[in-house]
Amino acid sequence: MEGEQRRGRLGPAVPIAPAARVDKFEVFFDLVFVVSFFIITRATAADVTLRELLHALLVLAVLWWCWIVHSVVASRLRLGEGFVPVLMVIGMMALFTFALALPQTFDGLHEHAAGPILVTLSYVVIRAVHLALYAHATRGRPSARRKLYQFIPEIVVTTILLFVAALVPPMIKNTDVGLGLRDGLWVAVVLIQYASGLVTGTRGWEVTSAEHWTERYDLILIIALGESVISVGVGGNLLGKPVTWPAIPAAMMGILFTAALWWAHFDMIGPAARIALHSAQGRPRVAMARDAYAYLYLPMIAGVILFAIGAEELVRTITDPAGGVGERGHGPAVPLLFAGVMVYLAADMAFQWRTLRTMTWTRVGVLLALAAGLPVAEHLPALAALGLLTAICVALVAVELVLLADARHALRGTVFEEKTHQETSEAAWRARWHDGDPEQATE
């Protein structure tokens, strides 16, 4: 009873309306993910090895699964209304703690033992908050509530595995066996999480507002792209040092190729996919939302983090006065830069196929150009390697602007008509308030 009274004073939870868009609190919540992406990038860039890359991708996958569950909850409740923000702030604190403890998660077995425990406890709090909100949102809806019961085993099993990964490996005398066990348990967590989303199917799920769902995922992708720029600026030693002539074109190219990758998705594919999700209804809509947005955005963001690590190392080499302009990139910097862009574009092509059932062959050509350019770039100075990748990305945008001009114009016309109709309908609805009949406007 006291809990109901407290919720009453805060106001009731508000369900998502069919035409709802992202509210301000959701954008505020996303800022915590900026920290998470940044920490993953910084921790990996400090020691780039195959094992560290695996660790970064595992942590990203677990973090992204929490994001998927978060987006499912946000597709049913307004996160900034009623008592919901109180629980979400608790979730934000847990997520922030999760992010801060990430660098110690995969340290040596006998170093920073508190880090893995803290990550697991934060994970439990995040999942508990989402579970409580989803349970509230599905009251009186048996089919949706059954979906909740289907996911409880996944939460329990993955939590147990994370605790085992934190506690058991340090007890093993053979370090290699302990490290392998820890990595294997994290791999099992990721496989169980994403397999559960496929095995349980689409029954009981719903995407009430396609506009809200697509905007939610588009914003987090933009955040990831923005984080890559921050990582290049901070990790590449562009801040706090005298500006050098090589640093200027390096910084400009870092912005330019990131903008080209933004354009590659958000100019045509993103808006067209939004319309496709609006057109789908029922289970096909849920399946598209799951496959294209929840699952395929993960490799896109992974690609962003990979090319951010590579670009950061290249910019650091370019701005290092000891090496000079002609110095080549160190270690895996060039492969990570090119591979990250290739992963991003390949995932975007898969996204396009899943939502639109079309394939843009210029993207295939760019993937081939990047694959052919990688061995060449490894023998070029760091600035030239960055310039080669930038030229390929900008060329993609330029070619598609010419070849797809008619399709682009038709899409812009469709979007304009849609927005005009929406604005006309909203203006007509609001006009009833000015006609002196506010009760009719609230019916």
Structural notes for this entry:
The chain is an all-alpha fold and 443 residues long. The chain folds into 2 domains: 1-206, no CATH class; 208-428. The protein is 78% helix and 0% strand. It has helices spanning 2-10, 24-45, 50-74, 84-105, 114-137, 142-167, 175-199, 210-235, 247-266, 269-279, 282-295, 297-319, 333-356, 361-377, 382-403, 405-434, 438-441. The model is unreliable at 1-7 (pLDDT under 50). Keywords: Membrane, Transmembrane, Transmembrane helix. Pfam families: LtrA. The chain crosses the membrane at residues 27-46, 52-70, 82-102, 114-136, 148-172, 184-205, 217-239, 245-264, 292-309, 329-347, 359-377, 383-404. This is Low temperature requirement protein A. Residues 422-443 are annotated as: Disordered.
How far apart are the first and last residues' alpha carbons, in Å? 31 Å
Q: Strand count, sense and closure of the main sheet?
A: none
Q: Name the assembly state.
A: single chain
Number of strands: 0
Low-pLDDT segments, ≥5 res: 1-7
Summarize the structure.
The protein has 443 residues and is mainly α.
Give me some keywords for this one.
single chain, 443 residues, mainly alpha, globular, Low temperature requirement protein A
Q: Which helices and strands, and how do they pair?
A:
Layout: H1 2-10, H2 24-45, H3 50-74, H4 84-105, H5 114-137, H6 142-167, H7 175-199, H8 210-235, H9 247-266, H10 269-279, H11 282-295, H12 297-319, H13 333-356, H14 361-377, H15 382-403, H16 405-434, H17 438-441
